[in-house]
Amino acid sequence: QSLPQQKLLTWLSVLECVEVFAEMGTARVWGEMGRWTIIVLIQLAKAILRLLLLLWYKAGIQMSPPIVPLNREQQQPLHPQDMEDNSSGKDQTYVGRRSSRVVRSLQSTPSLQSRHWGSPQQREESQSRRAEEMNQPPTPLGLQETIAESLYVTRPLLHLLSLGVWGQRSWKPWLLSAVLDISSLSLLSDLKDLNRRERAELRRRTILLLYYLLRSPFYDRYSEGRILLLLRLLADYVPGVGFVTR
What we know:
By secondary structure, the protein is mainly alpha-helical. The protein has helices at 3-56, 72-75, 80-87, 120-134, 143-166, 171-188, 196-208, 218-237, 242-245, and strands spanning 93-95, 102-104. Among the domains are: 1-59; 140-238, no CATH class.
Protein backbone atom coordinates (compact mmCIF):
# COMPACT_ATOMS: atom_id res chain seq x y z
CA GLN A 1 0.00 0.00 0.00
CA SER A 2 1.14 3.49 -0.79
CA LEU A 3 1.68 6.09 1.91
CA PRO A 4 -1.44 8.17 1.00
CA GLN A 5 -3.55 5.02 1.08
CA GLN A 6 -2.19 4.13 4.52
CA LYS A 7 -3.05 7.62 5.76
CA LEU A 8 -6.61 7.27 4.48
CA LEU A 9 -6.97 3.94 6.25
CA THR A 10 -5.59 5.48 9.44
CA TRP A 11 -8.06 8.39 9.38
CA LEU A 12 -10.90 6.00 8.59
CA SER A 13 -9.93 3.85 11.58
CA VAL A 14 -9.78 6.92 13.82
CA LEU A 15 -13.28 7.99 12.75
CA GLU A 16 -14.68 4.53 13.43
CA CYS A 17 -13.09 4.52 16.89
CA VAL A 18 -14.35 7.93 18.02
CA GLU A 19 -17.72 8.22 16.25
CA VAL A 20 -19.80 6.86 19.15
CA PHE A 21 -17.97 9.01 21.69
CA ALA A 22 -18.38 12.07 19.47
CA GLU A 23 -22.10 11.41 19.05
CA MET A 24 -22.70 10.97 22.80
CA GLY A 25 -20.56 13.97 23.75
CA THR A 26 -22.21 16.24 21.21
CA ALA A 27 -25.67 15.15 22.33
CA ARG A 28 -24.75 15.99 25.94
CA VAL A 29 -23.36 19.43 25.06
CA TRP A 30 -25.48 20.65 22.11
CA GLY A 31 -28.56 18.48 22.30
CA GLU A 32 -30.38 16.49 19.64
CA MET A 33 -29.62 18.90 16.78
CA GLY A 34 -25.90 18.76 17.50
CA ARG A 35 -26.06 14.98 17.72
CA TRP A 36 -27.57 14.58 14.27
CA THR A 37 -25.15 17.15 12.85
CA ILE A 38 -22.08 15.25 14.05
CA ILE A 39 -23.59 11.96 12.79
CA VAL A 40 -24.02 13.41 9.29
CA LEU A 41 -20.52 14.91 9.26
CA ILE A 42 -18.84 11.69 10.41
CA GLN A 43 -20.76 9.50 7.97
CA LEU A 44 -20.02 11.94 5.15
CA ALA A 45 -16.29 11.89 5.96
CA LYS A 46 -16.28 8.08 6.14
CA ALA A 47 -18.08 7.78 2.81
CA ILE A 48 -15.62 10.17 1.11
CA LEU A 49 -12.61 8.25 2.45
CA ARG A 50 -14.07 4.89 1.44
CA LEU A 51 -14.97 6.13 -2.05
CA LEU A 52 -11.43 7.43 -2.50
CA LEU A 53 -10.05 4.04 -1.50
CA LEU A 54 -12.48 2.26 -3.79
CA LEU A 55 -12.37 4.42 -6.91
CA TRP A 56 -8.94 6.05 -6.80
CA TYR A 57 -6.71 3.48 -5.08
CA LYS A 58 -8.64 0.38 -6.24
CA ALA A 59 -8.64 -1.02 -2.70
CA GLY A 60 -11.37 -3.54 -3.50
CA ILE A 61 -13.84 -4.70 -0.88
CA GLN A 62 -13.68 -2.45 2.19
CA MET A 63 -12.67 -4.26 5.36
CA SER A 64 -13.84 -3.70 8.91
CA PRO A 65 -11.73 -2.69 10.77
CA PRO A 66 -9.86 -0.85 7.98
CA ILE A 67 -6.48 -1.64 9.57
CA VAL A 68 -5.87 -5.20 10.71
CA PRO A 69 -5.14 -5.34 14.46
CA LEU A 70 -1.56 -6.13 15.36
CA ASN A 71 -0.83 -9.77 16.17
CA ARG A 72 1.56 -9.30 19.07
CA GLU A 73 2.47 -12.98 19.26
CA GLN A 74 3.48 -12.96 15.62
CA GLN A 75 5.43 -9.70 15.99
CA GLN A 76 7.17 -10.77 19.21
CA PRO A 77 10.95 -10.62 18.79
CA LEU A 78 13.17 -13.50 19.75
CA HIS A 79 15.14 -13.44 22.96
CA PRO A 80 18.89 -12.85 22.42
CA GLN A 81 19.61 -16.32 23.77
CA ASP A 82 17.16 -17.83 21.30
CA MET A 83 18.82 -15.95 18.44
CA GLU A 84 22.21 -17.29 19.50
CA ASP A 85 20.82 -20.83 19.58
CA ASN A 86 19.37 -20.44 16.11
CA SER A 87 22.57 -18.99 14.72
CA SER A 88 24.69 -21.74 16.27
CA GLY A 89 22.76 -24.35 14.31
CA LYS A 90 21.41 -26.37 17.22
CA ASP A 91 18.65 -28.81 16.43
CA GLN A 92 15.33 -27.41 17.59
CA THR A 93 13.43 -30.72 17.49
CA TYR A 94 13.91 -34.36 18.32
CA VAL A 95 12.11 -37.15 16.49
CA GLY A 96 11.24 -40.23 18.54
CA ARG A 97 12.68 -43.46 17.14
CA ARG A 98 9.61 -45.63 17.73
CA SER A 99 6.75 -43.14 17.91
CA SER A 100 8.13 -40.72 15.26
CA ARG A 101 6.74 -37.93 17.44
CA VAL A 102 8.36 -34.52 16.99
CA VAL A 103 9.20 -32.80 20.27
CA ARG A 104 11.26 -29.76 21.14
CA SER A 105 14.87 -30.27 21.97
CA LEU A 106 15.78 -29.31 25.53
CA GLN A 107 18.87 -27.53 24.29
CA SER A 108 16.83 -25.12 22.17
CA THR A 109 14.02 -24.37 24.62
CA PRO A 110 13.22 -20.66 24.18
CA SER A 111 12.86 -18.16 26.96
CA LEU A 112 9.62 -17.90 28.90
CA GLN A 113 8.62 -14.66 27.11
CA SER A 114 8.77 -16.21 23.63
CA ARG A 115 7.68 -19.74 24.51
CA HIS A 116 4.74 -21.22 22.68
CA TRP A 117 2.95 -24.55 22.39
CA GLY A 118 3.60 -26.66 19.33
CA SER A 119 6.63 -27.50 17.26
CA PRO A 120 8.74 -24.76 15.66
CA GLN A 121 7.77 -26.06 12.22
CA GLN A 122 4.09 -25.57 12.98
CA ARG A 123 4.67 -22.04 14.19
CA GLU A 124 6.78 -21.16 11.16
CA GLU A 125 4.16 -22.57 8.82
CA SER A 126 1.34 -20.67 10.54
CA GLN A 127 3.33 -17.42 10.51
CA SER A 128 4.24 -17.78 6.84
CA ARG A 129 0.61 -18.60 6.00
CA ARG A 130 -0.66 -15.53 7.88
CA ALA A 131 1.95 -13.31 6.26
CA GLU A 132 0.97 -14.63 2.84
CA GLU A 133 -2.71 -13.98 3.55
CA MET A 134 -2.00 -10.45 4.75
CA ASN A 135 0.11 -9.63 1.70
CA GLN A 136 -2.45 -10.84 -0.84
CA PRO A 137 -3.54 -8.00 -3.13
CA PRO A 138 -7.24 -7.08 -3.18
CA THR A 139 -9.40 -8.80 -5.74
CA PRO A 140 -9.98 -6.52 -8.77
CA LEU A 141 -13.57 -5.34 -8.99
CA GLY A 142 -15.50 -5.02 -12.22
CA LEU A 143 -18.21 -2.49 -12.93
CA GLN A 144 -20.93 -4.55 -11.22
CA GLU A 145 -18.84 -5.16 -8.11
CA THR A 146 -17.75 -1.51 -7.96
CA ILE A 147 -21.40 -0.41 -8.06
CA ALA A 148 -22.22 -2.95 -5.32
CA GLU A 149 -19.42 -1.68 -3.09
CA SER A 150 -20.44 1.92 -3.78
CA LEU A 151 -23.96 1.07 -2.63
CA TYR A 152 -22.56 -0.35 0.60
CA VAL A 153 -20.36 2.72 1.16
CA THR A 154 -23.08 5.30 0.50
CA ARG A 155 -25.88 3.39 2.27
CA PRO A 156 -25.45 5.26 5.62
CA LEU A 157 -25.78 8.62 3.85
CA LEU A 158 -28.88 7.52 1.95
CA HIS A 159 -30.35 6.18 5.17
CA LEU A 160 -29.76 9.50 6.97
CA LEU A 161 -31.27 11.38 4.02
CA SER A 162 -34.36 9.19 4.07
CA LEU A 163 -34.69 9.72 7.84
CA GLY A 164 -34.69 13.47 7.26
CA VAL A 165 -37.32 13.19 4.53
CA TRP A 166 -39.73 10.61 5.99
CA GLY A 167 -38.94 10.72 9.73
CA GLN A 168 -37.73 8.14 12.20
CA ARG A 169 -41.06 6.34 12.56
CA SER A 170 -41.47 5.63 8.85
CA TRP A 171 -40.78 2.22 7.34
CA LYS A 172 -39.23 3.73 4.21
CA PRO A 173 -35.73 4.37 5.66
CA TRP A 174 -35.65 0.84 7.13
CA LEU A 175 -36.71 -0.69 3.80
CA LEU A 176 -34.31 1.45 1.78
CA SER A 177 -31.34 0.50 3.94
CA ALA A 178 -32.24 -3.22 3.84
CA VAL A 179 -32.69 -3.18 0.06
CA LEU A 180 -29.30 -1.50 -0.43
CA ASP A 181 -27.53 -3.99 1.84
CA ILE A 182 -29.13 -7.02 0.21
CA SER A 183 -28.52 -5.65 -3.29
CA SER A 184 -24.85 -5.04 -2.51
CA LEU A 185 -24.36 -8.56 -1.19
CA SER A 186 -26.23 -10.07 -4.13
CA LEU A 187 -24.06 -8.26 -6.65
CA LEU A 188 -20.86 -9.21 -4.80
CA SER A 189 -21.87 -12.87 -4.52
CA ASP A 190 -20.88 -13.45 -8.17
CA LEU A 191 -17.28 -12.44 -7.46
CA LYS A 192 -14.92 -15.42 -7.53
CA ASP A 193 -11.39 -16.03 -6.25
CA LEU A 194 -11.74 -13.86 -3.15
CA ASN A 195 -8.97 -13.99 -0.58
CA ARG A 196 -9.54 -15.08 2.99
CA ARG A 197 -10.10 -11.60 4.44
CA GLU A 198 -12.59 -10.65 1.73
CA ARG A 199 -14.62 -13.82 2.26
CA ALA A 200 -14.67 -13.13 6.00
CA GLU A 201 -15.87 -9.57 5.34
CA LEU A 202 -18.75 -10.78 3.17
CA ARG A 203 -19.74 -13.30 5.84
CA ARG A 204 -19.68 -10.51 8.43
CA ARG A 205 -21.96 -8.33 6.29
CA THR A 206 -24.36 -11.23 5.82
CA ILE A 207 -24.57 -11.86 9.57
CA LEU A 208 -25.13 -8.14 10.21
CA LEU A 209 -28.39 -8.37 8.27
CA LEU A 210 -29.85 -9.88 11.45
CA TYR A 211 -29.50 -6.44 13.05
CA TYR A 212 -32.49 -5.29 11.01
CA LEU A 213 -34.63 -7.28 13.45
CA LEU A 214 -33.40 -4.94 16.20
CA ARG A 215 -33.80 -1.65 14.34
CA SER A 216 -36.79 0.63 14.58
CA PRO A 217 -39.55 0.55 13.50
CA PHE A 218 -39.37 -3.25 13.09
CA TYR A 219 -38.11 -3.68 16.66
CA ASP A 220 -40.79 -1.42 18.14
CA ARG A 221 -43.66 -3.22 16.41
CA TYR A 222 -42.56 -6.85 16.21
CA SER A 223 -39.28 -7.82 17.88
CA GLU A 224 -39.53 -6.06 21.25
CA GLY A 225 -42.55 -7.96 22.61
CA ARG A 226 -41.24 -11.36 21.53
CA ILE A 227 -37.76 -10.72 22.92
CA LEU A 228 -39.13 -9.53 26.27
CA LEU A 229 -41.44 -12.57 26.43
CA LEU A 230 -38.50 -14.89 25.80
CA LEU A 231 -36.43 -13.16 28.49
CA ARG A 232 -39.29 -13.46 31.01
CA LEU A 233 -39.65 -17.18 30.27
CA LEU A 234 -35.92 -17.68 30.74
CA ALA A 235 -35.97 -15.71 33.98
CA ASP A 236 -38.94 -17.65 35.40
CA TYR A 237 -38.17 -21.21 34.33
CA VAL A 238 -34.42 -21.56 33.73
CA PRO A 239 -32.38 -21.66 36.96
CA GLY A 240 -29.32 -19.47 37.15
CA VAL A 241 -30.11 -17.04 34.34
CA GLY A 242 -32.84 -14.97 35.98
CA PHE A 243 -30.43 -12.38 37.34
CA VAL A 244 -28.96 -11.70 33.89
CA THR A 245 -32.23 -11.74 31.94
CA ARG A 246 -34.03 -9.43 34.39
